[in-house]
Design a protein that fits this description.
109 residues
Length: 109
């Protein structure tokens, strides 16, 4: 558990993982107080959501349920990991892609 600062941004952090609409809502929820904990998870959730759509488009090229399933399982694992760390009030990047999301979406403060 982190400080009260993490608790203040916890709602926005959790909402960010609920589809791309949740990420947009969390972004606007965080505009007034600029909570760094919430911003961290908004960047992670945005990356997971964009990866979902990009990998979904890539998976549609293949005519194999095994390849498509592997892509979707990968995204599901990233999503669950991010959601659990937000609930536990931790700032851990999602496996493999998380550090890239922090750099790519650094404009979210």
């Amino acid at each position: 558990m982190q400080s009260d600062y993490a608790k203040q941004g916890k709602t926005a952090a959790i909402v960010a993982y609920i589809t791309i609409i949740g990420t947009i809502i969390a972004f606007f929820m965080n505009q007034d107080d600029k909570n760094q904990f919430a911003s961290f998870h908004i960047r992670q959730a945005l990356g997971v959501n964009i990866s979902f759509y990009l990998l979904g488009a890539l998976a549609s090229v293949f005519d194999s349920w095994a390849i498509s399933s592997a892509f979707y399982i990968f995204i599901f694992v990233l999503w669950v990991f991010g959601l659990i760390t937000a609930i536990k009030e931790e700032q851990k990047t999602v496996p493999i892609l998380g550090p890239f999301f922090q750099n790519w979406f650094s404009f979210i403060k």
